[in-house]
C-alpha cells in the first residue's frame, strides 16, 4: 500500500481531517512538527488528483511515497544552485551592481519559465551586460545577498550521513559553486566560468563551453557512474526549465518552489516547505 506525507508551516486540523477522509488512511504517524504520514491510503488517479488540488489550494506539500523507502538506498543527490540550493539568482544580483537587474532578471525569468529555449544564447546576452564589473561585485553578492534556502544544510548533511554523494550542478558560475562546495562539503560542483581580464574585471564572456540543460544531465550521469551508481539511483532537485533534462534522467525528480513547467514534470514538488522537508519522505530520515 502507498503512504501519503503531508507537510506545511501550519497543518490545520480541518485540513488533515479532510485529507484523511479523502485518502481513507488507515492510521497517522507524526513525523515532525507540521509533518504527518498517512498510511495505507487510496492510490488511484482520481484520489491523487483530488489530493493535489486540495493541497495546492490549502498551501500544503504532499507526496505519495512507498512504505519502507529509505534515503540511504539512493546513491546521488544532485541539486541546482540558483533559487534551489540558494535563495537568489546570482546573475541578477551581480547585474544589480551595474544597475541592470531589471533588464537581466527579465531574461532570467523567461528562461526559467521555458519561454527562451536557447539557454546558451540567453546566458551570453546576460553575461555581456556585466562587462567591466570588478570581481569585488561577486564578492559583495556572496557576502551580502547569497543565502542558503531553508533546510539546505540539514538536507546535505543528512544525505552525507546516509552515504549519498552530493553534486551541485548549475547554469550559474563557478565563482559561487566553488565556495558553496567548500562551505557545505559537497562532493562535486560544476558551473560556468566567467572570463576575467588582467585588471580583475569581467570581460562579458564565458570561458569554455556553456553548461546548459544537457550538460547538467551529462554531469549527473557521469557523476553517478563515477560512484558506481545508475542515474535511476539519483535524486535531482531544481526549479527552472534548465533543470528538466537533468531531472528527467534521475530516478526521483523534485521541483523546489519551482516554475509551473517544472512542477508539472517532476515526480514530487516542494512548494511551501524547506529543502529538508524531503527527508520526511524516507523512513530512515523522517523527523531527523
From TrEMBL:
Q: Which GO terms describe its biological process?
A: L-serine biosynthetic process
EC numbers: 3.1.3.3
Q: Which GO terms describe its molecular function?
A: L-phosphoserine phosphatase activity; magnesium ion binding
Which coenzyme or cofactor does it need?
Answer: Mg(2+)
Keywords linked to the UniProt accession: Amino-acid biosynthesis, Hydrolase, Magnesium, Metal-binding, Serine biosynthesis
Q: Which reaction does it catalyse?
A: O-phospho-L-serine + H2O = L-serine + phosphate; O-phospho-D-serine + H2O = D-serine + phosphate
Q: Give the active-site positions.
A: 80 (nucleophile), 82 (proton donor)
Q: Name one GO cellular component term.
A: cytoplasm
Is the keyword Amino-acid biosynthesis assigned to this protein? yes
| Top-level lineage group | Bacteria
What the entry lists under InterPro entries is as follows:
HAD-like_SerB, HAD-like_sf, HAD_sf, PSP
Please give the pathway this protein is involved in: Amino-acid biosynthesis; L-serine biosynthesis; L-serine from 3-phospho-D-glycerate: step 3/3
Q: What is the similarity comment for this entry?
A: Belongs to the HAD-like hydrolase superfamily. SerB family.
This chain belongs to which protein, by name? Answer: Phosphoserine phosphatase
User: What organism, scientifically named, is this protein from?
Assistant: Pigmentiphaga litoralis
Amino acid at each position: 500500500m502507498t503512504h501519503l506525507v503531508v507537510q506545511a508551516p501550519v497543518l490545520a486540523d480541518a485540513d488533515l481531517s479532510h485529507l484523511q477522509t479523502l485518502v481513507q488512511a488507515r492510521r497517522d504517524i507524526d513525523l515532525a512538527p507540521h509533518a504527518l504520514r498517512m498510511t495505507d491510503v487510496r492510490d488511484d488517479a482520481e484520489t491523487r488528483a483530488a489530493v493535489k488540488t486540495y493541497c495546492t489550494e490549502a498551501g500544503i506539500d504532499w507526496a505519495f511515497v512507498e512504505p519502507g523507502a529509505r534515503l540511504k538506498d539512493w546513491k546521488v543527490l544532485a541539486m541546482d544552485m540558483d533559487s534551489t540550493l540558494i535563495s537568489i539568482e546570482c546573475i541578477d544580483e551581480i547585474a544589480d551592481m551595474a544597475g541592470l537587474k531589471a533588464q537581466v532578471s527579465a531574461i532570467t525569468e523567461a528562461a526559467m519559465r521555458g519561454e527562451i529555449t536557447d539557454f546558451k544564447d540567453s546566458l551570453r546576452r546576460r553575461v555581456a551586460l556585466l562587462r567591466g564589473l570588478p570581481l569585488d561585485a561577486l564578492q559583495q553578492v556572496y557576502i551580502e545577498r547569497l543565502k542558503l534556502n531553508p533546510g539546505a544544510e540539514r538536507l546535505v548533511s543528512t544525505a552525507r550521513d546516509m552515504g549519498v554523494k552530493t553534486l551541485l550542478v548549475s547554469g550559474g558560475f563557478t565563482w559561487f559553486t566553488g565556495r558553496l562546495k567548500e562551505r557545505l562539503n559537497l562532493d562535486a560542483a560544476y558551473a560556468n566560468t566567467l572570463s576575467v581580464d588582467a585588471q580583475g574585471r569581467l570581460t562579458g564572456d564565458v570561458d569554455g563551453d556553456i553548461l546548459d540543460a544537457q550538460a547538467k544531465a551529462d554531469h549527473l550521469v557521469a557523476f553517478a557512474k563515477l560512484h558506481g551508481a545508475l542515474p535511476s539511483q539519483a535524486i535531482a532537485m531544481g526549479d527552472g526549465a534548465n533543470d528538466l533534462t537533468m531531472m528527467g534522467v534521475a530516478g526521483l525528480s523534485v521541483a523546489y518552489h519551482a516554475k509551473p513547467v517544472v512542477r508539472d514534470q517532476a515526480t514530487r514538488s516542494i512548494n511551501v516547505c524547506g529543502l529538508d522537508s524531503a527527508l520526511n519522505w524516507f523512513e530512515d530520515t523522517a523527523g531527523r
